[in-house]
Amino acid sequence: MEGLRLAWAPAPASRDGRRAVAWGLIRDLLRAEAVAEVRLANPCPQCGGPHGPVRVEDAAWRAGVTYAGRFAVVGVVPGVGGCFAIDAEPLHDTVREAAGGVPGGVRRWVRVEAALKAVGTGLRIDAASVALEESADGAHWFADVPGVATTVHGLDLDGPPGILLSAAVVDTVPMSAR
Questions:
Q1: Which domain of life is it from (predicted)?
Q2: How far is the C-alpha of 165 from the C-alpha of 155, rounded, in Å?
Q3: CA-to-CA distance for 22 and 142, rounded, in angstroms?
Q4: Is pLDDT at 176 greater than 50 in this prediction?
Q5: Which end is more exposed in the chain, N or C (fewer Cβ atoms within 10 Å of the end residue's Cβ)?
Q6: Paired residues of 163 in beta bridges
Q7: Could you give the count of Cα atoms lying within 13 Å of 170 in the half-sphere of its Cβ?
Q8: What is the strand order of the sheet 61-68 is part of?
């Protein structure tokens, strides 16, 4: 993911507080790329409420936001169109582990959720139905999402300590061309 920039910071538990931290991080990343002013929006594709994926409205950048543990984590990539998303989860979570963990493990979950965010379905698609495949060199992964005609290209990233982080972009490479 050429040009990918990441940032994270501790965030309060409140929805408004977390969003303020995340959006401030996005603006900081874009300022570092010489984008002085930017308008961010996050309308839900289903209801229009302010809780959907973040959009950069005034610049040729795409943004992704996720929250894991006490952190807000954001990423930006250059470009317009297409879809980009990130997801993160704490490597260890006592509540999740007491409930039996997640099928396939936390790494799979983070990859799948990033892919589902990137195609715009979120968890309306059963996470277990998403097929994952690693590249031959293990540097990237690909997701085949049922009902979605394009392949999602993913990358595992370094994030805050103890947090697993993945990014995903919609790709037009057919599954058979890898």
A1: Bacteria
A2: 9
A3: 27
A4: no
A5: C
A6: 90
A7: 17
A8: 5-10, 71-78, 61-68
